[in-house]
Specification:
Blueprint: H1 5-16, H2 22-29, H3 33-39, H4 62-78, H5 87-98, H6 104-115, E1 132-144, E2 147-158, E3 164-169, H7 174-188, E4 194-197, E5 204-206, E6 213-214, H8 216-225, E7 228-231, H9 241-254, E8 260-261, H10 264-278, H11 290-300, E9 313-318, E10 324-327, E11 330-333, E12 342-347, E13 351-356, E14 359-365, E15 373-374, H12 381-386, H13 395-400, H14 403-410, H15 415-428, H16 430-438, H17 447-457, H18 477-488
Parallel strand pairs: 1-4, 1-8, 4-7, 11-15
Antiparallel strand pairs: 1-2, 2-3, 5-6, 9-12, 10-11, 12-13, 13-14
Helix pairs in contact: 2-3, 4-6, 5-6, 15-16
Length: 489
């Protein structure tokens, strides 16, 4: 136990100035001779902790230490990563096999010392502007159309400026992976020399770290944008620590409170707003805000290629007789005039696009369930108008039209009137049509009444007149000439 500075001062004075013995100093100050012995010659001072007493733990006998060492050597010989001795397992075996009576913490300290574990520390890194971007995936929960849904958050960070880009996707598939990078390059305004990522299957087909073999499409993306792919070692998240921190930051700051959106595009608009606002932030230790440093980094980056890389998974598919096309276990409708024709289907991370002879004919939010069919009513309206008797049993109608509107349609005079009502629904939208219907006070509703209300709500715009009309100045002298001719007659 350390003594007070005042006592230490008296011990040193009595010994050096008065020349008293240790016995006399202890007697005069009424303290232990061991205390005087410790401090009298100045070899110890009371304000510096001397550490442990130096006594060995008697429970750690040579037998115990040899047993622990043998367990670790056995792990090395077997070399099975997920079936190695833990400190807890070694302790349990010591209790069962050696009747060990010490504590578990004692064995934990011994195992850590024998394994030679280093303390948790990291090397500070510095990057040049435009040198590298780190990328990673994260997960988050949102409410999509009122339903709790798990989404995947794609995160990118420019290493020099700390500028960020995030985007939500339904899945962590190859299409989303490639699309996220292309969108990120466009957000940063250029392409870095290196892109640092982990060993996820969307990027690596075999191996890991410096031995990783890149997936074919990712290799094509890297070749087109001229950046070098760089992969981290297994379980070494600190090698891309900047983006690792971004994943958690994005969840806490962009998605709290939990967003409630109608579609993922709405969510991504909000996420992008946060990314742009982050450019106003100034990282501690930096002299300039993130946005200023991001502009400097963009200048040093490589230019985006003129041709934008197609990140979709594209297939050729023949449209069925029901005017639907199959993609990724689901069916999607297209306009009926393309039935029986071969079209191109492009699957992006969050959407599906259908093309015929390079002209877009349909677009959907991508469905990742199985066995689903997505319809758009306008694809079938021309066909339903030619075959009105199908209207009440048509799947495209039942799948897309609100139940209330279907019940109103059944009260009309027949299928043809229902078809006219659907045309109004297709042209004006649900909200305007239902508002017009609810404004009618009569019991029997006709399509003509609804049309008249919609016509009133949409007044005709006055025709714009061209007031810049050039009028030539009249020559009045010609009239004088006519008068003179008449006088002569």
């Amino acid at each position: 136990m350390a003594i007070q500075l005042e006592t230490y001062e008296k011990i040193r004075y009595l010994y050096e100035q008065e020349g008293l013995s240790q016995r006399n100093i202890a007697k005069q100050l009424s303290i232990s001779r061991n205390t005087v012995k410790k401090y009298f010659d100045g070899s110890s001072v009371p304000w510096v902790r001397q550490g442990v007493s130096g006594r060995c733990r008697t429970v750690i006998s040579d037998e115990v230490k040899e047993f622990v060492q043998s367990c670790l050597e056995e792990d090395g010989k077997e070399n099975i990563k997920k079936q190695k001795h833990t400190a807890k397992r070694i302790y349990d075996r010591l209790v069962e096999e050696k009747s060990f009576c010490g504590g578990e913490s004692t064995i934990r300290e011994l195992v850590a010392s024998l394994r030679g574990k280093f303390p948790k520390a990291f090397v500070p890194l510095s990057f040049e502007p435009g040198e590298a971007i780190q990328v990673d995936w994260g997960e988050a929960t949102i409410y999509l159309n009122g339903k709790k849904t798990k989404i995947n958050l794609w995160c990118m960070r420019e290493c020099c400026s700390d500028d960020i880009f995030c985007k939500a996707f339904y899945r962590q598939n190859e299409e989303s992976f490639l699309e996220g990078q292309v969108n990120g390059f466009e957000h940063f305004g250029g392409v870095p020399q290196r892109v640092i990522f982990d060993n996820a299957r969307v990027a690596v087909k075999d191996g890991f770290g410096v031995h990783a073999k890149v997936q074919d499409r990712y290799a094509a993306l890297a070749a087109h944008y001229a950046f070098k792919t760089e992969f981290c070692n297994v379980a070494q998240g600190h090698e891309k620590g900047l983006v690792e921190g971004l994943v958690g930051w994005a969840r806490r700051n962009m998605l709290v409170p939990i967003p409630r959106v109608t579609n993922i595009d709405e969510l991504n608009e909000e996420i992008l707003r946060h990314c742009l606002k982050y450019r106003e932030h100034q990282v501690p230790g930096r002299e300039q805000p993130v946005g200023v440093l991001a502009k400097i980094a963009a200048v040093k980056m490589m230019n985006l290629p003129k041709y934008k890389f197609d990140t979709s998974r594209s297939i050729l598919a023949r449209v069925s007789d029901f005017s639907t096309v199959r993609f990724d276990y689901n069916q999607y409708s297209v306009p009926v005039q393309y039935a029986g024709k071969e079209i191109t289907v492009k699957g992006y991370g969050n959407e599906i696009v259908m093309l015929y002879q390079n002209i877009q004919i349909a677009q959907y939010h991508r469905c990742y369930e199985r066995g689903q069919t997505e319809y758009q009513l306008e694809h079938y309206m021309d066909l339903i108008e030619r075959r009105p008797r199908s209207v009440f049993n048509a799947k495209p109608v039942k799948s897309t039209v609100p139940l209330e509107l279907l019940e109103i349609g059944k009260q009309l005079s027949g299928p043809k009137e229902m078809v006219k009502l659907l045309r109004l629904y297709s042209d004006h939208g649900e909200e305007k049509l239902m508002t017009a219907i609810h404004s009618l006070s009569c019991k029997e509703i006709t399509v003509m009444q609804i049309e008249s209300i919609l016509a009133i709500e949409k007044p005709m715009l006055p025709k714009k007149l061209d007031y810049d009309v050039k009028v030539e100045k009249p020559e009045l002298c010609k009239y004088d000439g006519l008068l003179s001719v008449r006088a002569a007659v």
